[in-house]
Amino acid sequence: MRIALVDPSGATRSFVARLLEARGHEVLPFSDEREGLRRIQSDPCVEALITGDELTFMSGFELCWETRLLATCRRPIYVLLMSSNGGHSNLIEALDSGADDFIGKPPLAEELYARLRAAERLSSMQRELIRLATTDPLTGLANRRGFFEQATEACERSIAAGRVSAILLDIDNFKSINDSYGHDTGDEAIRACARSAAEAKANLVGRLGGDEFAMLLEQQSLPQAIAIAEDLRVRLAERPFETGRGLIRLTCSLGVSEGGPGDTVDELLKRADAALYDAKIGGRNRVVGASGTLLAVIGAERPRMMTRAAAR
User: Which of 92, 143, 224, 235 could pair covalently with 220 via S-S, beta carbons 3.0-4.6 A apart?
Assistant: First the structure.
């Protein structure tokens, strides 16, 4: 684990650091708790904080609280408070302040190791629960929840820095694949589409549900995103797969949009969804930009008068 160690006493920092390093932990020692807090905030690889209760600019309880505010569901941070005052009230205050555990100061080596082993078990379990909650089991991509959690942060970051684009992809005539070949073949079609989407130049790919996928492209303009979508459409169409009853060729329809100042990921995807709808009613197997301009056409034209359900 990468551990931030905060204590104004050089002797305490040196002693605890030696104990931690002896078990292979990476130690970042700080005498100034403000510097330690800044490092925890800027370095997502810091997995734990060990702090004394008597600091210079704030109390150890306050540092525990400030660190707990930095932890998220995707970034668990184990917080251990050291104190020479082992009173019951001190323990309660530490736990109420956001500490996960409490240990004497200076800590006994085996007790410290045991608490860190428990912390690693909990962190491992939390990471696995997060993975299960945010990953689509069929494709290994982000599921709807995982995609929107990551896309919200990425969209805000990218729009502030420049631009961001999104692609929505839907497999054409997916219901007929399930009806004609069975759900096992339908699952393989979804996996094939997921593999092709994962190969595209996208920062984030997710399966939103059924046969619909979303892709977020940071620092990509609308024309660049359209080119990526067209390449994906062609690659998928050129990769037929065996069903047990012969080869089938998948085609897909794609809608593309570009974000603007103040856009949320919902607004970005809403425009991409409108473009995807135009691609469907325009004949499928094509890419349409959010402006509604037809950008790629493969196959015969289909009647444009469709309901949205029929287009899907």
Answer: 224
Number of domains the chain is built from:
2
- Amino acid present at 269: L
Residue whose pair of structure tokens reads 């006493």 in the numeric block? 9
Q: What is the pLDDT of residue 243?
A: 78
Whether 213 and 254 have beta carbons less than 8 Å apart is answered as no
pLDDT at residue 78 greater than cutoff 80: yes
Q: Is 43 helix (H, G, I), strand (E, B) or coil?
A: coil
Among 78, 105, 134, identify where a domain stops: 134
Output the pTM of the full model: 0.74
Residue 129 and residue 8 share a domain: yes
Give the residue numbers spanning the domain of 263. 144-311
294 SS3 class: strand
Q: Which residues of 131-163 are buried (b: 16+ CB within 10 A; e: fewer)?
A: eeebbbeebebbbeebbbbbbeebbeebbeeeb
Residue 291 lies in a domain: yes
Q: How sure is the predictor about 296, in pLDDT bands with cuts at 50, 70 and 90?
A: very low
Q: Is 232 exposed, middle or buried (0-12, 13-18, 19+ CB in 10 A)?
A: buried
Alpha carbon of residue 118 to chain centroid: 26
- Mark whether 300 and 191 lie in a shared domain: yes
Question: Closest Cα partner for 193 from 104, 113, 152, 254?
Answer: 254
Cis before residue 44, ω within 30 degrees of 0?
A: no
Name the strand (E) or helix (H) holding 165: strand 164-171
Write the burial class of residue 288 (CB in 10 Å: 0-12 exposed, 13-18 middle, 19+ buried).
Answer: buried
